Amino acid sequence: MKKICLLIATLSLNRSMACTTCNRQLQDAIYDSTFYPNLLIMLSAFFVLALIVVFLSWLSARKYRHLSSQSPSYKTLNPVPLTTASMVLGIGMGGFIDGIWLHQILQWHEMLSNKVTLKTLMGKSVNMFWDGVFHLFCWVVVLTGIVLLWKLLSRRDINRSGSLLSGGLLLGWGLFNIVEGIIDHHLLKLHFVRQRSLDPDYENFAFLGFSVLLIFIGWIMVHKRAHYRSPLKEI
Question: Domain range spanning residue 141?
């Protein structure tokens, strides 16, 4: 009987340790002096990505206007709106790929695993909280991308090429990896791609190399000259 009571007490304690709404010690570990700096760090990465998307969309719109002005007697379908929407969606999906595969399935790292130990239940719970905040931001980005795509349904002046959609997704995924990798892996060292690696720099730079490849392929796909020239309709 004593063993059963001890087991129940142990399980109850473990459940409370992983509960951010019922465990005071965990709350104190999360909402300490590092809470707002950590939150700002996560927001800053997405803010940088937003600026990059705006800049790339501006460049694409400028290219579209320039090429359209060379053939004023023709109407060219606009590739920029679909490219922008798919880039935003790709950023959010890239974040989910990172969080689901590297954080949860492979468990190579967690959001603050280089700052908060993963060797204790408390440290694991704190990291899980920040992983959740990271996924929340990714969810908001994906929702924004869906809304942008939905707003294109009623427009007839846009290019709906599949390569724009898939290329934008790859471009957004690569941009997310580059920004998140540089900020979190290299500058702030919040975590490494593979936390327990003997040489974490190897995986960190391989991660950036893969990201550059994604951006290169995505850029080629969305900036094909044909997207800015066809289909053409006489006015």
Answer: 37-69+77-234
Position 217 in a domain = yes
Helix, strand or coil, per DSSP, at residue 76: strand
Phi, psi dihedral angles at 78 (to 5 degrees): -80, 120
CB-CB contact of 214 with 171 (8 Å): yes
What's the mean per-residue pLDDT of the chain? 87
> Which candidate, 209, 207, 211, places its Cα nearest to that of 197?
207
CA 228, CA 111: separation in Å to the nearest integer? 41
Number of domains, the chain: 1
Q: Is residue 190 part of a domain?
A: yes
Angstrom distance (rounded) from CA 80 to CA 88:
12
Q: Which of 85-89, 108-112, 185-189, 230-234 shows the lowest mean pLDDT across its residues?
A: 230-234
pLDDT over threshold 70, residue 29: yes
Strand partners, 75: 233
Kindly state the tokens that stand for 31.
């909402």
- Against a cut of 0.85, is the pTM above it? yes
CA-to-CA distance for 107 and 191, rounded, in angstroms?
12
- 31 domain-assigned: no
Per-residue pLDDT, 235 = 38
Q: Are 88 and 141 spatial neighbours (Cβ–Cβ below 8 Å)?
A: yes
